[in-house]
Fold this protein.
Amino acid sequence: MRDLTHVSIVIAALALAGCASPPAKLVVLPAPSSMATVPQETSGSNILLRSVTVPGYLETFPVVTGRTNGALVVSDSTEWAERFSDGVTRVLRDALARRVGAERVLIARDGRIPDADLTIEFLSLDPVAGMLNLDARWFFACAVRAQSRGGRTHLEVPVARPTPEAVADATTAALTRLADELATQMPCAEQPQRHAIRAKGEAP
């Protein structure tokens, strides 16, 4: 009787192991390496990409690959390797640095005072009908308030296939195009006096 019980336990364990789902495949947003633009001039105002928000449904780890009749289609085997908003911030910061100069796009807590804080709210950043739809509100908050400005950008990028990898590629392409526009919208003049004060160790 004891042997039969042992055999039953082993069979049940094997059955559970056979039903277990394979580990999820992880994907990341690729770097904007195809747009390695070297700026002709590196002087001017500097910015800090302060806050990036995305719709809550994109912050879940399964990759959204499309929509059907208004319902989201998500991958059942592939997830983002990082929080989606973190990946978006990383790619956008890199793309901006390639366009205006790395020294003008500050790193958080690097000790420098930005001439402007850049905040972006993505209203959409996901595939719809074979196109990656980007709709974003952005705002440059300058130290000199009168120089602050904001706007809204909407653009679409084709998604080659309804796969997580193709969605990741199209997302980076869309963010790269957004960086192109933001690089032309940087409004703030550099504030030499503020940087001099910071250099003396005084609080901002």
In short: The two ends are 79 Å apart (CA to CA).
